[in-house]
TrEMBL record:
Gene3D superfamilies: Alpha-ketoglutarate-dependent dioxygenase AlkB-like. GO terms for cellular component: cytoplasm. PROSITE patterns: FE2OG_OXY. One of its GO terms (molecular function) is broad specificity oxidative DNA demethylase activity. Belongs to the alkB family. Binds 1 Fe(2+) ion per subunit. Pfam families: 2OG-FeII_Oxy_2 (PF13532). Residues 241-361 form the Fe2OG dioxygenase domain. Keywords: Dioxygenase, Iron, Metal-binding, Oxidoreductase. Its cofactor is Fe(2+). GO terms for biological process: oxidative RNA demethylation. This is Fe2OG dioxygenase domain-containing protein. It comes from Liquidambar formosana. It comes from the Eukaryota.
Length: 361
């Protein structure tokens, strides 16, 4: 087929791609053209594993759907495994509502703070206090070089020869030449936040950890949580040392394509992955993209561990549900619906946050 301009059909795709396409958010064509709000296309979710209902049935009568096993351990929460994917563990509802609120807040306020890097670094350099700036409806404005701004009037963009960059201001400003300085609102930047990295910094361009980049240690409380939750994946009682974390932020229509996390030295150590906010579909494939993946729901408060053989399995997130009926975040919304928390509420009701914690060496 080389050189042909035939449009690829489903049979050309890997099993993983086909599943991504099946669950991805599409809109009904009809509703697009009408003035009515776009309606998401209906998806058949009957094959999506729901560990929340598996837990309910397990608690009621010790019964589990075929292929799902309950881990026997002295861990203080029910832990489920998949017969066909050794090394994969699912802890439904592992985080209390207080813990979920805490990590949502930290993910938006302290985790994107320099020296932690975010997807915005490449364009804007380090940005401080993005969430506060968004709350205060500020705009990020490009500073004009002092050479052009030296004898300008009071409207000039802030000059700084040493480190021209970007700065939060109350409103867009006019440059010395009378042009409006480049600017973007903080709330748009917050919406466009896709990832931040904690601890050892991951360099996406080189796909490795760059130990020479300035970094802080992973906050102690997150470290302790990850150590505690990693225990079911380490039955010999080994220690899990959290050294790096990637925080993924998902808005409406965002996805995370199928991939492997293969830059860590010791794959026997788990990746501890926390879900917060809107419900999502997680695809757990096999060692080849041609292996049909298992689809499962991730709810706010769930924890997934991937260790050993499961580290070699392709995985991704093709869908988050932001509509009221499917997002399943009413309890979290109520937690955030008082006083000073309205900004968190506004963000999380159409978003999902994933924090995945890793031992690198
Ligand atoms: O968002 C998730 O639950 C999965 C994240 C993930 O696979 C990753 O960051 O490598």
């Amino acid at each position: 087929m080389y050189g042909s301009d035939r449009v690829p059909d489903d049979s050309d795709r890997t099993a993983f791609k086909r599943a991504e396409k099946k669950y991805k958010l599409y809109y009904d064509n009809d509703s697009k053209s009408s003035k009515k709000k776009k309606q998401p296309k209906q998806v058949d979710l009957s094959e999506v594993v729901d560990f929340k209902s598996a837990l309910a049935s397990f608690n009621q009568n010790r019964e589990l759907p075929p292929g799902i096993l309950a881990l026997c351990s002295d861990f203080n929460l029910p832990v489920f495994c998949l017969e066909s994917r050794p090394g994969f563990y699912f802890i439904p509802g592992a985080l209390s509502m207080e813990e979920q609120c805490r990590w949502v807040k930290e993910s938006l306020t302290s985790f994107p703070q320099p020296p932690n890097r975010t997807n915005h670094n490449a364009i804007y350099g380090p940005i401080h206090d993005l969430f506060i700036a968004a709350k205060e409806r500020k705009v990020l404005v490009e500073e004009e070089s002092s050479l052009t701004g030296l004898d300008s009037g009071p409207n000039l963009c802030v000059s700084n020869v040493e480190a021209p960059g970007w700065k939060f201001l109350e409103e867009p400003v006019t440059s010395s030449k009378g042009n409006t300085c480049k600017s973007i609102s903080a709330s748009v930047l917050l919406r466009k936040l896709r990832w931040s990295t904690l601890g050892l910094q991951f360099d996406w361009s080189k796909r490795n950890y760059n130990v020479s980049l300035p970094h802080n240690k992973i906050p102690n409380a997150l470290c302790q949580l990850a150590k505690r939750m990693a225990a079911p994946a380490m039955p010999m009682g080994e220690e899990f040392q959290p050294e790096a974390a990637i925080v993924n932020y998902f808005g409406i229509g965002d996805t995370l394509g199928g991939h492997l996390d293969d830059m860590e030295a010791d794959w026997s150590k788990p990746i501890v992955s926390l879900s917060l906010g809107c419900k999502a579909i997680f695809l757990l494939g096999g060692k080849s993209r041609d292996d049909p993946p298992i689809a499962m729901f991730l709810h706010s408060g769930d924890i997934v561990l991937m260790a050993g053989e499961a580290r070699e399995c392709f995985h991704g997130v093709p869908r988050i549900f932001t509509d009221k009926e499917n997002a399943e975040i009413t309890p979290l919304e109520s937690q955030f619906s008082h006083g000073d928390d309205a900004c968190f509420l506004e963000y999380i009701r159409t978003s999902r946050i994933n924090i995945n914690i890793r031992q690198v060496f």
